Amino acid sequence: MKRAGPPGKRGERRLRVVPRRGTDRHAVAATSPAAEADNHPARWSRPSVRTIAIASGKGGVGKSNLAANLAVALGARGARVLLLDADFAQANLDLLLGLHPRFDLQHVVSGEKTLEEIVVPGPEGVRLVPASSGSPELAELDDFTRECLLRNIGLLDDEIDLVLIDTATGVSQHVTSFCRSADDVLVICTPELPAFSDAYGLIKLLHAQGLARAPHLLVNQAGSTEEAEETAHRIRLVARRFLRLELEYWGAVPFDPAVPRAVRLQEPVVTAFPNSPAAAAYCALAERLWPLPDPDERVHPQSERLEA
Ligand SMILES: Nc1ncnc2c1ncn2[C@@H]1O[C@H](COP(=O)(O)OP(=O)(O)OP(=O)(O)O)[C@@H](O)[C@H]1O
Ligand SMILES: [Mg+2]
Known about the structure:
CATH architecture: 3-Layer(aba) Sandwich
Number of helices: 16
Radius of gyration: 18 Å
Bound molecules: adenosine-5'-triphosphate, magnesium ion
Shape: globular
């Protein structure tokens, strides 16, 4: 899918996130929230890479486990996935994937390393852009540097089909900026009331900020399919009534003790316990996002695959 806007500099292989003042600075000078969303630098530079930001409002609802497991399940289906740990307060995707990166985004922001130098290979070909917890450089990242970072991630490699962004908890500008830069936002909610109201709060804020496309919804830690559908139904109803937004329901992941068990093993549940209900749910979402080509079809365009 081609995007409007200045072309990415695909020849520029060694990427730096340190802002280049001048022409790039004009890129972030948007006039309205909607224009800003359209004109976001992260959207210029990825002519064919689909980006999905995973967010929630409330913390501890299962974003990082979803990001890690969905990435690995997509990788197993042949998609080339880049996973960005954008939770700069509590970065943990490396632990969930059993990886031990030496360097992370902190070193990129400080100018010591390039993005290419910090990417670590993970299971099923997934590539992780790791972050570190509690780094002042990352915690205090200004808008301009964050936008340069997103743009450079888009330029990282031509061989990426999908970028998954695991965002931090809450509705900070840090979180909403990553959400607005993405093609799709997947909001995770649990059946608990606080998770419901925080998810709605995030959706409302993103809508007010001119998010280009309505977010999608996933219910995690549901006790049953009925409970998940009831939760999704309530959020969709409120968003339709008060925001005139049609949220698409991307399914549910059941409450499953295999998830924390896999976390303790530092392995994604889709590989540690592939027959568990949670693994099946993560794989079902991967199938929805990345259906395998129909054997009768000789060509299966990527654009069709990503219409979830
Ligand atoms: N489907 C599930 N069934 C059971 N436990 C789960 C499930 N999903 C996540 N958990 C557990 O919930 C906890 C929080 O998960 P996770 O770290 O993925 O959430 P998060 O939204 O990323 O949290 P944070 O806001 O701190 O970043 C973990 O201990 C994890 O094991
Ligand atoms: Mg997390």
